[in-house]
């Protein structure tokens, strides 16, 4: 039987749905406070839900009863500075608990990391799986939590765990709604006026799920894979979304110094209101950076062909407009 952790999240729900559509009956773990996502409601007959926080090793062990494969999509994500240390601690300890139990029970795992845990390439070169984040200089809490969680999986692999790691770029898809990456679409729709010079990778959520399932079915272990469809300039992405939404595209370049002012202003507003800032320092600086990713390793491993980002953009826009 298959267990999907984090199945109430954007990727986890799509992965669970894809597994069910392939004829699997699956088990999904959730926290007590989590709500079952709408896209999984029609498949209640094929889904067994269990309450098991990854920080609760005893509950997690019960959830793993009879399981032979685990897809780990669970993660604590927050932009709040106050959540930095709890996020790192939760993601790392939770992953360690799952790694130890899977190793003990001989369960194969596909672990979801992020390109936030992948290092930088030299200017003009593509970022590959061989680039590693420098933990001594990294300050972004999410990146640190993903890197250190990955290290727990590598520790498990060294101890005999059968596992592979995926590092998706920015995941987009209609089921995100206006949360997560869906905020990009909603922001453009509401009249975004600025764009930056940055470049980043994007990939359809269903493609990430399909890659994870394909990797699970191989005999590959002890490898990490960047999951990326295309590298896009933010300006190009915003213009394409604006065209789909039939709104005016951003016209003004936001320079790095303007982004510095923006995140500081957002931080002040967040401090005064007690809410998460609309823009944090890491995101503001990343928006002007060029990070282009090489997807040749995953293509060679499973012969995968990615959906064009333009198709996904159209799907997301149709969903939000309707």
From TrEMBL:
InterPro entries: Epimerase_deHydtase (IPR001509), NAD(P)-bd_dom_sf (IPR036291), NAD(P)-dependent_oxidoreduct (IPR051783). Pfam families: Epimerase (PF01370). Residues 2-227 form the NAD-dependent epimerase/dehydratase domain. This is NAD-dependent epimerase/dehydratase family protein. It comes from Mucilaginibacter lutimaris. The lineage of its organism: Bacteria, Pseudomonadati, Bacteroidota, Sphingobacteriia, Sphingobacteriales.
């Amino acid at each position: 039987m298959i267990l999907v952790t984090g199945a109430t999240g954007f990727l986890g729900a799509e992965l669970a749905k894809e597994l069910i559509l392939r004829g699997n009956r699956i088990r999904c773990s959730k926290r007590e406070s989590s709500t079952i996502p709408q896209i999984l409601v029609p498949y209640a007959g094929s889904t067994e839900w269990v309450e098991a926080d990854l920080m609760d090793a005893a509950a997690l062990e019960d959830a793993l009863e009879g399981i032979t494969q685990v897809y780990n999509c669970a993660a604590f994500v927050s932009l709040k500075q106050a959540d930095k240390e709890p996020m790192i601690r939760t993601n790392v300890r939770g992953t360690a608990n799952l790694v130890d139990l899977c190793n003990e029970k001989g369960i194969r795992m596909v672990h979801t990391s992020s390109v936030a845990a992948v290092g930088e390439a030299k200017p003009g070169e593509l970022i590959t799986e061989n680039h590693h984040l420098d933990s001594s200089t990294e300050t972004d809490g999410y990146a640190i939590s993903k890197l250190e969680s990955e290290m727990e999986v590598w520790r498990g692999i060294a101890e005999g765990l059968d596992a592979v790691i995926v590092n998706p770029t920015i995941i987009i898809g209609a089921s995100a709604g206006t949360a997560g990456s869906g905020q990009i679409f909603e922001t453009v729709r509401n009249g975004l006026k600025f764009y930056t010079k940055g470049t980043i990778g994007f990939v359809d959520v269903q493609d990430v799920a399909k890659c994870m399932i394909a990797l699970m079915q191989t005999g590959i272990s002890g490898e990490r894979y960047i999951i990326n469809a295309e590298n896009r300039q933010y300006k190009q992405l915003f213009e394409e979304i604006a065209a789909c939404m039939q709104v005016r595209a951003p016209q003004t370049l936001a320079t790095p110094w303007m982004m510095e002012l923006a995140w500081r202003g957002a931080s002040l507003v967040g401090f005064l209101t007690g809410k998460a800032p609309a823009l944090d320092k890491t995101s503001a600086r990343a928006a002007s950076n060029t990070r282009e990713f090489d997807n040749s390793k995953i293509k060679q491993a499973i012969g995968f062909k990615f959906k064009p980002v333009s198709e996904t953009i159209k799907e997301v826009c149709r969903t939000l407009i309707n």
